[in-house]
């Protein structure tokens, strides 16, 4: 009787084994199509693709590839700008009026002609929508009431932009390279306006630009498809399509890259980067980015507010060890607030791990036996690793650090409410100009709880009227060299006295299959351009 | 005689009808209170978690006045109870709001992500049941034998090994080394342009459209995550089958059947398993419902755009409309599956019918 049973089971197991074998029938090795480049990237931060609203890292890259500006960041010399839609521009002697000549006979992807009217409309909608990135334009004195006067087309090929103060021209032009100043197709957008929203509801998930690629489809947390824009005036993209595939996992990206199911992996962690470095079919490309990682000391905490304590903690970080392990390949030790490659950046890393010096400073502050303090840490690498390293080195001088782990948005919420002791995080430049970081690391116009502007200095309750004045002055210095020197001076002061312990500048790394040519990461997040990419 | 007979029948019928109506009413009340309770709890948890929902919308770098305006637009400046009533009012008209992260209406999002999860869960449950039940029966029949021990070990591994680890291991072996299955996602990028899904159930759509190459590609994508989930439900189902079967096999009717001279095969598969099937239905239904919730880790590893990933991502960003919508759908599915398994219970077990 049991014999029959085992017979049945044998049959069942055979069937199961067979079905597994069928499922596992060997497949021809499938590469991605030749005319398509497939990138794996965590794109779950995108919440809008409207250039007047988008302000996230992934969205910035998409906008950079699909829209065009009056002027662009010069990739070969990032302290300058190069012509985009504008062929030339002049600045009036009082530095208040900028006149741009638009290149003739340009077309949007839709086929509509690009005129100065489109530029003016793009400025108007960005200012009136007043979304997160709008301040990049409104800081020049633009308001919903005056924008049509201050940013207007005097004829189809002339756009005139009037600013409220004689700013450094480098500052104004740098800001115009930002995504928020992208030129949108007025005729197309106006077909999709509902309730005076300037087409925002539609443009969040659709496309009205003139860049080398068209945005064809975006499915949140899944896929984003770009297609070559054959109406592009510059050199046309070499591949027909570029597909961003949402993949969050570093190890998954690595496997897919090794198998050829993706061409470019964008989120590899140090361990996986190390592993693929021996693979002949894969190369890597890296570029320093405008993001610095730091931890900051809330000045509302009486202990942390002591100047000696601020200085001591800067000596209690093992920069060398962190650089050699935790951020190897994905960052470089960097202690000043301007990223490398930007006008006025200062390459000075004076702090080293020095426990004796730190102890001396703590004793001077009356804290011979150290003190206890907490740090809010979001549970992602490399910040978790850095926090743990700092915890150890702090302990060597008797500073007992407790780590409070949390989700990214959770720690950030606490930080923004100034309820932390120490917060570890990163800051990316909003636009490619030194003022972007100076404005947040070296200016705090109002330290009151209900302040209108809440820069990082405010979040750490660092009240600095004198530095705030200097930052404002640098903005009006028309000589680019002198302006650069002013920012270097600001950085030195923040480095010495500030509550920010800046640890490293991020390097973005992409692992690329060898048959993909011409992929080059840019200096900023919106200059990771795909139009030069081709496949053999 | 005939008269009284028929009146008895009518009375019995009437009683049966009224009890059916009562039963239905009980179902409805249970379902509604469950879902309402779920709504209340999720709503209030969502509002007290220490994450600022505005942050997800405008980002960290937005100026203060934009943050404030958005807060007012979302109604977050109102007292909690007002926010709740407003949400319920909207939800009753079928408006679950818009997801911040995807900018789509929540219902539309769920319609997009849920089929992916259902597909995966169904394959997983099918594998789990088809293999798990025979394994469980085998273990029970050959209790204490090597076969039993092997089934036990298979189950134990399924219970205790983290799916994250097993998933990556499976990828390394079956995808990276053997290149037997496809990865990542549900479908290869080449088909993004040639295949237009209608229902969102890709496998179903492709079969209906007779696009056999797409079916094959979809199958290669779902095989590994499906098998993985299948293994985990197998572990559970085989253990439960074993224990139900052991209970049945010690019953007197089995002895009676043996005395009658029935073949062992017939006793096990026809009599014992049929009785064990009754509680087993609930087990399978609950395991299916569990998988429908979306296996977050599996979905993350395999870049599977399903419900679990959607809700987790929304929760981390305090995208409360999406979280609430997703939770309600899962709640409704749970209640639905419970009712369904209850009904199935009634058909399988005649004793429950009269009650």
List keywords for this structure.
heterodimer, A: 536 residues, alpha+beta, eleven-stranded mixed sheet, four-stranded antiparallel sheet, 19 helices, 19 strands, 21% strand, disordered N terminus, B: 355 residues, mainly alpha, 15 helices, 0% strand, globular
Task: Detail the topology: elements first, then pairings.
The complex is a heterodimer of chains A (536) and B (355).
Chain A lengths: L1 H22 L12 E6 L15 H10 L4 E3 L7 E3 L2 E6 L5 E6 L13 H14 L5 H4 L8 H4 E5 L2 E5 L6 H8 L9 H5 L9 H4 L9 E7 L3 E6 L12 E6 L3 H10 L4 E2 L4 H7 L5 E16 L9 H8 L4 H8 L4 E3 L21 H10 L7 E7 L4 H14 L3 E7 L1 H9 L5 E7 L5 H8 L14 H4 L5 H11 L4 H18 L2 E14 L2 E2 L16 E2 L1
Parallel strand pairs in A: 1-10, 1-11, 14-15, 14-16
Antiparallel strand pairs in A: 2-3, 4-5, 5-7, 6-7, 8-9, 9-10, 11-17, 12-16, 12-17, 13-17, 18-19
Chain B lengths: L1 H47 L4 H6 L5 H10 L6 H13 L13 H36 L4 H15 L2 H15 L24 H7 L3 H38 L2 H9 L3 H29 L3 H6 L5 H10 L3 H29 L2 H4 L1
Kindly describe this structure.
The complex is a heterodimer of chains A (536) and B (355). Chain A has 536 residues and is an alpha+beta fold. Helix content of chain A is 33%, strand content 21%. Chain A contains 19 helices and 19 strands. In chain A, strands 1, 8, 9, 10, 11, 12, 13, 14, 15, 16 and 17 form an eleven-stranded mixed beta sheet that branches. In chain A, strands 4-5-7-6 form a four-stranded antiparallel beta sheet. In chain A, a hairpin with a 7-residue loop joins strand 2 and strand 3 (81-83). In chain A, helix 11 packs antiparallel against helix 13 (355-364) and helix 18 packs antiparallel against helix 19. Chain A is globular and about 70 Å long. The model of chain A is unreliable at 1-9 and 20-29 (pLDDT under 50). Chain B has 355 residues and is mainly alpha-helical. Chain B is built from 15 helices and no strands. Chain B has helices at residues 2-48, 53-58, 64-73, 80-92, 106-141, 146-160, 163-177, 202-208, 212-249, 252-260, 264-292, 296-301, 307-316, 320-348, 351-354. In chain B, helix 5 packs across helix 9, helix 6 (146-160) crosses helix 9 (212-249) and helix 11 runs antiparallel to helix 14. The longest helix of chain B has 47 residues, at 2-48. Chain B is globular, with a radius of gyration of 25 Å. The two termini of chain B are 28 Å apart. The relative contact order of chain B is 0.13. The model of chain B has no long low-confidence stretch (mean pLDDT 86). Chains A and B meet through helix 1, strand 1, strand 10, helix 9 and helix 15 of A and helix 2, helix 3, helix 5, helix 7 and helix 9 of B.
């Amino acid at each position: 009787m049991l014999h029959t049973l085992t017979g049945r089971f044998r049959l069942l197991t055979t069937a199961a084994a067979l079905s597994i074998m069928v499922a596992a029938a060997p497949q021809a090795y499938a590469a991605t199509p030749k005319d398509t480049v497939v990138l794996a990237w965590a794109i779950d931060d995108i919440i809008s693709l409207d250039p007047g609203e988008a302000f996230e890292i992934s969205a910035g890259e998409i906008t950079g590839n699909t829209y065009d500006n009056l002027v662009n960041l010069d990739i070969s010399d990032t302290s300058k700008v190069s012509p985009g839609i504008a062929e030339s521009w002049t600045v009036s002697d009082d530095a208040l009026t900028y006149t741009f000549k638009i290149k003739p006979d340009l077309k949007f992807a839709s086929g509509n002609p690009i005129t100065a009217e489109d530029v003016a409309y793009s400025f108007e909608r960005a200012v009136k929508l007043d979304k997160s990135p709008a301040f990049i334009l409104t800081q020049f004195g633009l308001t919903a009431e005056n924008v049509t006067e201050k940013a207007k087309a005097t004829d189809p090929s002339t756009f005139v932009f009037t600013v409220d103060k004689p700013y450094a021209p480098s500052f104004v032009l740098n800001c115009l390279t930002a995504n928020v100043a992208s030129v949108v197709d007025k005729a197309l957008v106006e077909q999709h306006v509902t309730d005076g929203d300037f087409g925002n509801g539609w443009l969040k998930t659709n496309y009205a630009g003139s860049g080398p690629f068209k945005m064809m489809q975006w499915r949140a947390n899944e896929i984003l498809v770009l297609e070559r824009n054959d109406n592009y005036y510059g050199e046309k993209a070499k591949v027909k399509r570029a597909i961003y595939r949402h993949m969050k996992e570093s190890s998954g990206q690595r496997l897919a890259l090794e198998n050829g199911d993706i061409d470019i992996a964008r989120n590899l962690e140090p361990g996986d980067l190390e592993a693929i470095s021996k693979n002949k079919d894969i190369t890597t490309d890296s570029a320093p980015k405008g993001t610095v990682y730091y931890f900051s000391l809330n000045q509302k905490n009486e202990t942390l507010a002591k100047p000696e304590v601020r200085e001591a903690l800067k000596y209690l970080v093992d920069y060398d060890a962190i650089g050699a392990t935790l951020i190897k390949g994905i960052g470089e030790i960097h202690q000043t607030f301007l990223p490398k490659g930007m006008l006025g950046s200062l390459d000075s890393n004076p702090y080293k791990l020095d426990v004796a010096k730190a102890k001396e400073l703590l004793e001077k502050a009356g804290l011979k036996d150290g003190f206890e303090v907490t740090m809010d840490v979001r549970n992602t690498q490399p910040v978790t690793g850095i926090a743990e390293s700092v915890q150890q080195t702090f302990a060597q001088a008797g500073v007992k650090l407790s780590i409070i782990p949390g989700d990214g948005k959770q720690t950030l919420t606490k930080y923004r409410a100034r309820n932390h002791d120490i917060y570890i995080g990163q800051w990316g430049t909003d636009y490619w100009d030194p003022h972007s970081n100076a404005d947040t690391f070296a200016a705090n116009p109002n330290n009151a709880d209900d302040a209108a502007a809440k820069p990082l200095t405010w979040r750490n309750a660092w009240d600095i009227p004198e530095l705030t004045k200097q930052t404002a002055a640098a903005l009006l210095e028309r000589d680019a060299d002198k302006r650069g020197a002013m920012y270097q001076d600001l950085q030195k002061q923040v480095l010495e006295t500030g509550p920010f312990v800046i640890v490293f500048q991020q390097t973005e790394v992409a692992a690329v299959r060898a048959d993909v040519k011409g992929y080059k990461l840019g200096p900023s997040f919106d200059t990771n351009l795909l139009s030069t990419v081709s496949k053999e | 005689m005939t008269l009284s007979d028929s009146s008895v029948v009518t009375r019995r019928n009437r009683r049966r009808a009224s009890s059916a109506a009562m039963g239905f009413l009980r179902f409805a009340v249970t379902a509604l209170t469950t879902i309402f309770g779920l709504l209340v709890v999720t709503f209030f948890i969502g509002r007290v978690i220490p994450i600022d929902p505005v942050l997800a919308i405008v980002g960290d770098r937005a100026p203060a006045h934009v943050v404030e305006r958005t807060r007012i637009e979302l109604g977050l400046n109102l007292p909690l109870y007002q926010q709740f009533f407003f949400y319920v009012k909207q939800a009753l008209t079928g408006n679950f709001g818009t997801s911040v992260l995807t900018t789509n209406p929540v219902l539309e999002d769920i319609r997009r992500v849920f089929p992916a999860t259902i597909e995966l869960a169904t394959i997983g449950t099918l594998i789990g049941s088809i293999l798990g039940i025979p394994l469980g029966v085998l273990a029970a029949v050959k209790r204490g034998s090597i076969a039993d021990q092997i089934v036990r070990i298979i189950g134990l591994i399924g219970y205790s090994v983290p799916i994250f680890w097993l998933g990556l291991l499976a990828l390394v072996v079956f995808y990276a080394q053997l290149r037997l299955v496809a990865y990542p996602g549900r479908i290869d990028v080449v088909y993004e342009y040639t295949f237009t899904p209608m229902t969102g159930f890709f496998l179903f759509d492709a079969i209906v459209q007779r696009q056999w190459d797409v079916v094959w590609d979809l199958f290669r994508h779902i095989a590994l995550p499906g098998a993985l989930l299948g293994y985990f439900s197998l572990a559970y189902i085989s253990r439960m089958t074993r224990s139900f079967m052991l209970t049945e096999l010690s019953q007197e009717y089995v002895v009676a059947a043996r005395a009658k001279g029935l073949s062992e095969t017939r006793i096990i598969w026809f009599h014992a398993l049929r009785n064990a099937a009754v509680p087993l239905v609930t087990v399978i239904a609950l395991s299916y419902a569990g998988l429908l919730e979306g296996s977050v880790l599996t979905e993350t590893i395999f870049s599977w755009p399903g419900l679990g990933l959607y809700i987790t991502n929304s929760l981390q960003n305090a995208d409360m409309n999406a979280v609430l919508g997703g939770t309600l759908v899962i709640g409704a599915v749970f209640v639905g599956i419970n009712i369904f398994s209850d009904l199935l219970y009634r058909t399988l077990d005649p004793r429950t019918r009269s009650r």
